[in-house]
Task: structure prediction
Amino acid sequence: MLQSLNLRAALVSIGLLVVLLGVWELLNRPPETSEALTEYEILMGGADQEARVPPPSDVIRLAIDELSNPFYDAGPNDKGIGIQLAYSIYRVLTGFFLAALIAIPIGFLIGMSPLMYKALNPFIQVLRPISPLAWMPLALFIIKDSETSSIFVIFICSIWPMLINTAFGVAGVRKDWVNVARTHELSALRTAMTVILPAAAPTILTGMRISIGIAWLVIVAAEMLVGGTGIGYYVWNEWNNLDLTSVIFSILMIGVVGMLLDLALSAATRLVQYEE
Amino acid sequence: MSFKSLGNPFDGESDLTHGPGCSCPICVFAREQAQAEYECSETELTAKLEKAVFEGPDQPQADLSMQPVETKQTSVEDPNSLDNSEDVMDRVIESAIVRSMFGHHEPSRRQFMRMVGGGTVAGILATMFPLDAAKAAIKDSLGKPEKTKLKIGFVPITCATPIIMSHPMGFYDKYGLDVDVIKTAGWAVARDKSLSGEYDASHMLTPMPLAMSMGAGSTAMPFRMPLVENINGQAIVLHVKHKDKRDPKMWKGFKFGVPFDYSMHNFLLRYYVAEHGLDPDKDIQIRVVPPPEMVANLRAGNLDGYLSPDPFNQRAVWEKVGFLHTLTKDIWEGHPCCAFACSEKFTTELPNTYGALMKAIVDATAYSQKAENRLEISKAIAPKNYLNQPEAVIAQVLTGKYADGLGNVMNDPKRIDFDPFPWHSMGVWILTQMKRWGYIKGDIDYKKIAEEVYLAADATKIMTDLGYAAPDHTYEKYTIMGKEFDPDKAEEYVNSFAIKRT
Result:
């Protein structure tokens, strides 16, 4: 039954895709040109520049083209989609892991100590709602390096969900488990590592999963702002050229990579899941 | 720009000290000597020449053992045309070598050249003396750049043409620089990256270094503008639905886009509508919009028009959403637009690098000034790495043969032009407009600020070094839409406008 449900769902998905692409294709066919163009028409770009959304066939053609040579490097402003994505992923992961290094210990501290929770809470509440991109001008000015600044922006946006979820997970560890640890006279560090960490791990990973999602959202915007390299720069560069085909293609790529990042963390979450 | 003429040292008729056709006694005597017929065999000739070379005052023996190098024959075949600074430099060096061979005695050099023929001498000399190596050595000794690996920022518009094209067309390499040109999302980012030292120099708008140095719109930071990039090259574009509203008086309530507050675009649009009796702050709306978004906003009906850098004016026509109402060239013929700017620190700490960079840009600017090179340049700067625009659009902007969006093919080779000289009077005009529209307040020493930021003296030096003619003054009067601007009367000029904010 489950097997057939999966199968039927897949069939419906494919059916929807075909209908959607078919309608999109048919509504946006390039106009036919038959007569010879006058000089004026040639200077106007002929008929193929009529305002229209590029049909999926164009996007697929471009995708095949780009993906068949994803790692070419033709100078600082023209690199393959693979290189651009690699830059973005590198920035996201660097910022993300730096954030984890800081957020998880502080989250533990806040979760285990009501005093620190109350003391740090005002800072967290003020800093958390700030849009990551609002940090960009300040970061550029202080750090004086656009690469590090974009990593910093990822760092600052990744830190809050991890921090809050870690604190929440640590504070929510069942009291009897901690009490058992206490009766075994475990040291605070040992308690944290052997009892609280495994118990809070699913919550912590949920926080990390939220963080990486936000980080991936932010990096595209940050790179559009700063330029240089990365998938955000790719979109900006094609936007400069008003080339919607490339923009649609890069949107799809952003979606695919975002999904892969999320899948990786959800797999990690499943690893630390436990049954009570 | 004109080139200095240097006499060809292999030509017996030209006099390197006196110029061709001189009538002083020495030259007349030399010409008489030449009347005598003289023949000599190849061996005799070689011997004569060898003697001259070896006994010449400062030719070390070691140099002569080097591999023979091919001579540059161009200067012999076409003595009066020196195409670029490199040729001028080559000629200076050739001259020095040939003259020293003859102990700086002009009559004997001329006599010898006439006897055996300049081409032969050049050929034989090349087999014995590494002329090209000597030329390279002398050019290097003019000052090796302290730093050769540079990063230069640009915003992808045609105004940046000389900065961009120098990369694919090798102008940076020619002056020993290894430059990466980095595409930048906007002027604020270009400024921040220049300040942080990530960019060694950058493409900016001509009003920006003035505004930055005075702290208008940002904190005060000393920036320098040794060169202008382009003149003209902008246009007012309107949505195609406004085809029948060519009279600016009908533009009340229009929404216009400009790319930056401190830009010629903003000042020219304000000037233009104000001359037609509209108050740019009350009768129309002016918004700061990044150029690519202008085309999209025009299509969406969010903007009625804009004054923006190319290629986005031509791009609106190409996309069939807009038409060119007027070129800014027709508002002020020869107005400055974009600039080449760097920090004051860069100019003082790396003088040779700064000099080499300026030479590359001045050279590229001179090259792009020539109409016959414009198609080649369009091809070089259109790819993804640079402007990332259809070549057909870039070519229409650069060659000035374009569709106006109203059904006409126009031909205006000066639609965009290139001239590196940073006139102080241009700076003063920009300051008057900043004062007029309230961007800067209080008493302003127009000339002092313009002279501090626009480094005309540096531009003059580099242009002269390269053999281009630089103006001998830095202030001139302009006529803008029929109204005269006199840089000596800046304050009166500001006060003479009916529509102003001060």
Observations:
- Chain A has a mean pLDDT of 85.
- DSSP finds eleven helices and no strands in chain A.
- The first helix of chain A runs from residue 2 to 27.
